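Incident review: delayed structure delivery

Summary: a single-chain prediction request sat in the queue longer than the usual turnaround. Root cause was a stuck worker, restarted by the on-call engineer. No data loss occurred. The affected request and its eventual output are reproduced below so the record is complete for anyone auditing the incident later.

Affected input:
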Amino acid sequence: MLKTQDDILKLIEEKRQKYIDASLDIWDYAEPIFEEFKSSKRLAKILEEEGFKIIFGVAELPTAFIAEWGKGEPIIGYMGEYDALPGISQAANTTERKPIKKDGYGHGCGHHILGTAAMAAAIANKDYLELNNMEGTVRFYGCPAEEGGGGKVLMNNAGAFDDCAAAISWHPTDDNGIWSINFHAQQKVEYTFKGRKPYVKESSDSNILTDYGANSLDALQLFIMGAQILRTHLDPCFIVRSSILKTGDEKIDELPTESKIIYSYRAHTNKQIQKAMELLHNVAKGAAVMTDCELIAEYKTGYSEMLSNRSLERIMHEKFEKVGTVPMTEQDWNYAEKMHTALLLKDGEQATFDLMRLLYEEQAEPIIEQVKGKPYNNLLYPFREINVHKPGSTDICDVSWTTPTTQCVVACYAKDTLGHSWQEVAQGRSDICMKGMLVASKVMALTGIELFENPKALRAVRNEFETKRPGKVYIPLNSKKIVENEMIKYGKL
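Output delivered after worker restart:
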C-alpha cells in the first residue's frame, strides 16, 4: 500500500510514457477552440481507464467534460486545457519557420502538456486516496477554448465549480515559480454597422421619392474617432486594441452596406471594464444614429480579474521546492542552446529582466545574476506576493471567484521564448517540454494531496477566499452572448 507522497511521485514516473504519448498526440491534433474533439476524448479515455466517471457536454459545450473519482469531501479540482492557436503550425524541433500546414493550428501556448499534466496530477491524487483508503473526491475539468473562447467562463456560469474546494492548475513558460500575479480583466466586443443601398420609388401621387441610403463606412469612421477620444477619459491602466474586420464588399462607387470592427479592452478590474464598455457602446450608438445605420454589438470574450489566494500559493510553492525543476542533461542543454540562439530576439533577455524587476523588485537582481546568459532557466523563483497587474488575461481568473485557485509555471522552453509563437510550437515535442510536464504534474499532485491530508491547511485557504470574496462584486464578463436582447439596433430615424 502506498502511504507517502514520495510513493506517488514514483507512480507518476512509472506512468510517464502514457502521459508523454497523450501529450504528443494532442500536439499532433492541434485543434481549434470549441472543436477539440480528438484532444478531449484522448484525455477522457485515459481517465476512464483509471476509474474516473466521465461527463461530457458541460455547459452545453461538446468538448467540455468533467472526470470524477471518489466520494465525499473535499472536492479538489484540476484544470485541463487542450486548444491550439491559429496560424502557427510548425514542424517540431526546427530552428526556422516551417509550417506543417499553411495557416494551420499549433500548440503555441503549451496546452498539449497543460491538460495532460493536470490529468496526471488528478490520477495521482486518485491513486493516493484509493491506496490509503481515504475519503475525498478528485475532479479533472476538461476545459475547451481558453484561447479566446472563454471555456472556463461558460463552465463557471453553468455552476461546474460551485462545490469545488480548490482548483489547481499550471502553465508552461520559460521560467519556474508560482503565478502570484494579478491578471487583467478583459472584454472583447465586435461591432457591425449595417447600412443600405440608395433606391428610388414612385409614390401614389406620382412624386419621386429617393432614399439616399446609409453608408456603413461613415458609421465606422465616426465610431473609431469617438472611441479614440474616449481613450483620453480612461484610467491609464487600460490597454485598448482594435482591428477592422470589414469595410464593405461592394464595387467601387457603390455604397458600403456592412462594416465591422472588434475592440479589446483590458484593465485591472471588472468594474473598470464594465464602465468603459458602457461608454464605448454609447459611442457606437451615436455613430449609428448619426449615419442612419443599424448596429449589432456582439460580446466575443470576457475574462475577469484574478482573485489570488496566497495561502494556496504558499502550499504550491513548498511542493515545488520538494519536486525541484526540470532535471537537465547535457543533451537538453545543447538543445536549449540551439533553440535559444535561433530565437534571435533583439533585447529579448533584457525584456525578460525588466519584467522580473517589475514583479520581484529588490529580489530581482540576485535572480537575474543566476540566469543571465543561460539558454534555459532552471532556477525556481522565490515565493513573493506580487500585486502588480500582468497585461494578460485568462479564463481561469473567473474560476478564482468561485473557488480558491492557484497556478505554477514550469520552464518547458528555451529562455526568452515568446508565448503564442511558432518557436513554442517547435519546442513542444522536446524532452525538456515532456520533463516540464511531469514536473508540473508532481507539483500539482502534491498540492492536492496536502489539501486532502491537512484539513487545517484547507480551512486556511477557504478562510482567505471567504475573506476576500465578499468585499468584491463578481461581474461575469461572459463570452458568447449577444448584448441587449440578442441584437441591438439603432438608427433608422
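Verification: The chain is about 40% helix and 20% strand.
Action items: add queue-age alerting; document worker restart procedure.
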